[in-house]
């Protein structure tokens, strides 16, 4: 009896290993805009994405590796480990807002995003880049250069792009800090993102 029990456990372990090897993961790699800052986790657009995929019997699972306050430099330091651990089929890159709010040099943000895209593609993952816009705290020219960064990278590396992930979000759909969308805005964010994501799977 013990022999058959051990044999059963071996089969279960092998099945779990095989299932993991064929998992089709979507890695969401961002900052507080994707980490669900200030709202219930289940209300965030990332959770809504997973719910929609399940409802449509999609084979994809969503892995949220977003960290509030993350910058492109921090994202670059983590991306190799994240890709190795989750082996995603698709990587949604949502980074740069904190760089822009800190007035980081555009060239540094560009180089970091470039490296994250390159490593993701080297890992055989499709990439969806989410565009960000920032207020003109550091001048209109800086804000324009920052906004242009995302379509420039998407065109150069031929990756999918959502030009502005917060398109259509009204002023009353932001939290008190006027930076983070509230729970009511999350469904519109998902609509924006799905326009770029659906062609990838």
- Look at the structure and give the mean pLDDT: 92
Are there runs of 5+ residues with pLDDT below 50, and where? Answer: 4-21
Number of helices: 8
- The number of E-state strands comes to 5
Level of helix content?
Answer: 40-55%
How many angstroms separate the termini? 45 Å
Overall tally of structural domains: 1
Oligomeric state, counting identical vs distinct chains = single chain
Which strands sit side by side, in order, in the main sheet? Answer: 2-1-3-4-5
The value of Rg in angstroms is 19 Å
Going by helix content, strand content and strand pairing, the class is alpha/beta
Q: Give the SSE order as H and E letters.
A: HEHHEHEHHEHEH
Major sheet details: 5 strands, parallel
Overall outline:
globular
CATH class: Alpha Beta
Q: Could you please say which CATH topology applies here?
A: Rossmann fold
CATH architecture: 3-Layer(aba) Sandwich
The CATH homologous superfamily name equals SGNH hydrolase
Strand composition percent: 5-15%
């Amino acid at each position: 009896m013990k022999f058959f029990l051990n044999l059963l456990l071996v089969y279960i372990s092998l099945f779990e290993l095989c299932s993991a090897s064929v998992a089709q993961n979507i890695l969401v790699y961002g900052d507080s805009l994707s980490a669900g800052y200030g709202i219930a986790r289940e209300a965030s657009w990332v959770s809504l994405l997973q719910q929609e995929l399940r409802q449509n019997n999609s084979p994809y699972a969503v892995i949220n590796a977003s960290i509030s306050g993350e910058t492109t430099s921090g994202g670059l330091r983590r991306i190799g480990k994240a890709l190795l651990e989750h082996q995603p089929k698709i990587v949604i890159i949502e980074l740069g807002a904190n760089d822009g709010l800190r007035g980081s040099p555009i060239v540094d943000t560009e180089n970091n995003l470039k490296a994250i895209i390159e490593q993701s593609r080297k890992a055989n993952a499709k990439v969806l880049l989410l565009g960000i816009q920032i207020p003109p705290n550091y001048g209109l020219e800086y804000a324009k250069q920052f906004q242009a960064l995302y379509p420039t990278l998407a065109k150069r590396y031929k990756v999918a792009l959502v030009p502005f992930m917060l398109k259509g979000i009204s002023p009353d759909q932001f939290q008190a800090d006027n930076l983070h969308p509230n729970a009511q805005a999350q469904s519109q964010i998902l609509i924006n993102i799905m326009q770029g994501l659906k062609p990838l799977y």
